[in-house]
Design goal:
The chain is mainly alpha-helical and about 400 residues long. The chain is built from 16 helices and three strands. It has a three-stranded antiparallel beta sheet with strand order 2-1-3, sandwiched between helices. Helix 11 runs antiparallel to helix 16. The radius of gyration is 28 Å and the shape is elongated. About 0% of the residues have low confidence.
Length: about 400
């Protein structure tokens, strides 16, 4: 018996969420059909992954889409394409996934069905898109579009990682250098002071910090590990998750960057889905799942309900705090002109460039700021360490 957590649309367009216990996927589909629901998202619990397939990273998914699209375009059958990809792949996770897909296709399953049986190995969006591509007979084009989509995501993720790696490295170096100077150099400098000599104020601060770290070392380590253990549990609380989601878009400096990235992700995903024939409400529901921010997802659910009540897309999105107002303006133009897909494509490209520029701007601001912080902290530590020596010279 497996548990299926699902989101589905009823005949009146309302979203229904729930969990159904079923023996297999056919049993689940029968129960859902009896309820008159049309599922657009499902997650299976308690199901073993075929051939121990683990979740594929973004690069592997992108590679899979690009190579499979090329082979299908060249006229090779799906099963032969999967077999050739399996033989040419040297990455164990991707190799296991391809073996499982080949086995499923050989049994008569569609590619989307085989992917769905592999748990969370492939992104839900990709499975939905491939299912639509198979039904429309445009699997090759769908795979190419999804490869482009994941390539853009990978580029954006790489830019963010590159922008944050330097500050992280500086922070680690700063902590290590400061601790080393306090633990090994400061005591020697203080020891040279004659008994009864007044210890300078900055030096007292470092000595107090050294004493605190020494006396509470075990507690500090336990506290750090406790935070790493407890934080993921606390974040699962709905109220906390919503608070953190909202906080992300209003943090100084980083908040503006995140808003650009969220806007870019939504516009790009909505274009990819709608241009492949996915109904608008289904596409927006999928976008809600992809945002990775429960606060934005909640607001998107509200926007979807507003569209069902008859509001325009642009008007319904006005309440979403994380999106750039220009997105709504562009969508309004697309709705009025009847060229929403074209406008979404242009808007997605625009915000992808904006997000890239925002990342560069954040990098150009954070790097000098971190260098300044590092100079101030290490400068203070050096002065505090050298002041006992200066006091010794003054005593003569």
């Amino acid at each position: 018996m497996q548990k299926y957590s699902y989101k589905a649309l009823s005949s009146d367009g309302k979203v229904h969420r729930g969990i159904i216990a079923a023996t297999d996927e056919d049993d689940f589909n029968k129960v859902v059909a009896d309820k008159g629901l049309r599922v657009f998202w499902v997650k299976v619990y308690g199901k073993k992954e075929t051939s121990s397939v683990k979740k594929l990273d973004l690069v592997m998914v992108m590679t899979f889409c690009r190579q499979l699209s090329s082979m299908l375009t060249a006229g090779l059958p799906l099963s032969k394409s999967l077999e050739m990809l399996y033989e040419r792949t040297d990455k164990p996770k991707l190799k296991n996934a391809l073996a499982a897909l080949f086995e499923g296709v050989q049994k008569g399953q569609s590619l989307a069905e085989s992917m769905a049986e592999m748990g969370n190995a492939f992104p839900p969006l990709l499975i939905s898109m491939i299912k639509a591509g198979e039904m429309s007979g445009q699997l090759e084009d769908t795979l190419t579009k999804m490869a482009d989509h994941y390539e853009k995501q990978k580029k954006q993720a790489s830019q963010v990682k590159s922008a944050t790696s330097y500050p992280k490295m500086l922070g680690i170096v700063l902590v290590l250098v400061t601790v080393a100077m306090i633990k090994f150099i400061l005591p020697r400098m203080v020891d040279v002071l004659p008994e009864g000599t007044a210890v300078p104020g900055p030096t007292k601060v470092l000595m107090a910090l050294d004493t605190f770290l020494t006396n509470n070392f075990v507690i500090i380590i336990a506290l750090v590990f406790g935070i790493f253990i407890v934080l993921p549990i606390v974040r699962k609380i709905e109220a906390v998750d919503l608070f953190l989601g909202r906080l992300k878009i209003y943090l100084p400096i980083v908040g503006k960057l995140r808003r650009q990235i969220y806007t870019s992700t939504f516009a790009s995903s909505l274009y990819t889905l709608s241009s492949n024939g996915v109904p608008l409400l289904d596409a927006m529901n999928m976008c809600s799942e992809m945002m990775g921010n429960s606060f934005i997802s909640l607001q998107l659910d509200g926007a979807i309900e507003a569209i069902r009540r008859g509001e325009s897309i642009s008007a319904s999105l006005q309440s979403i705090e994380a999106f750039d107002p220009l997105l709504m303006t562009m969508i309004f133009v697309g709705e009025e002109s009847g060229s929403l897909d074209l406008i979404l494509k242009q808007t997605a490209e625009y915000f992808e460039n904006e997000a890239s520029e925002a990342i560069k701007g954040m990098t150009s601001l954070i790097n000098p700021l971190m260098t300044l912080v590092m100079a101030v902290v290490i400068g203070f530590v050096l002065i505090a360490i050298l002041m006992p020596m200066f006091s010794l010279y003054d005593s003569y």
